[in-house]
Amino acid sequence: MPTSPASAPLSRRTMAYVLAGGRGSRLLELTDKRVKPAVYFGAKSRIIDFALSNALNSGIRHIAVATQYKAHSLIRHLQRGWNFFRSERNESFDILPASQRVSETMWYEGTADAVYQNIDIIESYAPEFIVILAGDHIYKMDYEVMLQQHVNQGADVTVGCLEVPRLEATGFGVMAIDETDRIVSFLEKPKNPPGMPDNPDMALASMGIYVFTTRFLLDELRRDAAEPGSSRDFGKDIIPYLVEHGKAVAHRFTHSCVRSSAETEAYWRDVGTLDAYWAANIDLTQATPGLDLYDTAWPIWTYAEITPPAKLTRDGSGRGEAIDCVLSGGCIVSGAVLRRSILFTGTRVHSDAHLEDAVVLPGVEIAPSARLSKVIVDRGVHIPEGLVVGEDPDLDARRFRRTDSGICLITQPMLDRLE
To answer: Which CDD domains match (predicted)?
Structure first.
């Protein structure tokens, strides 16, 4: 990576390394065919687009994505939507599937190993800094701010952290810090999370975002790879080791989150369960949602399919109506009624169908007179005429994947079993 002027942003001397290999098993059948970062979100994007867009908008021009589990859908999306990086502009975008480059029998064993196995590729670009990112969260963040803190505090590692109510932090990796935000201990899912010195009712939970000086990180990865019994994982091995033997510093998300004038709070979501995924999508149908996707100052980049405009029309049996809905390109709603629903690209809803609180992924066909409430409909599903979901909990649970809160996931194999 060519040397940048000292006055240049640190991001121009940085590589973003996105970890996108985990299945996301809590999304159940939604990740049967795709890895969690490739799951659709917000009518036209994929989950991974948020981490990638944050990197791009922050000024980072060298990005690598490590893939593993059922990666075809993700790789295809990256090739279509993120192929505009140009080497002649000192840019790079590398897709790094687990390819047994270190051993003919070894896939990526953990998050740290997914970086270790590609050390030679990282070194070929010679970035001064590296930002390790999880590819499966929804948020907007300026990584330049975090990089500046890392340099100013002389940290070995800077860990991105969320401020969460202390009693709700039991499911996170929690950082105990001193008055300077130096991490003094790292606790994995503690029963009694430590509070923050300046706000005892709040705790700092790890976001899975780490900043390192590249040379330091590569030395640590080599040390960890030689350590017997290591699980080769950042959260389990690398970060706890550096908390004890180095200088680990917490970076508060509130200091670098990106908000438009329409966003009142720092927005971060782990959409790793069906309930959370459904709720985050449905929230976008509000007049003023928690996440502003219309912020042109911080766009969410993605693969922009060439589609005709969305169309809402009436037919002979009634009128088409959509209230508090988000419709993507290529959608046609003909003589149907939609409320608080989000339709992804190319979905067709036919006469007398009723959708309420529905998240409908791309290419779905909903036949006449279907009634769907509180559902997630997987890509390419054909909803048969007259199907009713969301009105009989027992029947729904026998036919589809139903959560305790009443959200139903509908996939084509589930419908095929009904015939």
So the answer is: ADP_Glucose_PP, LbH_G1P_AT_C
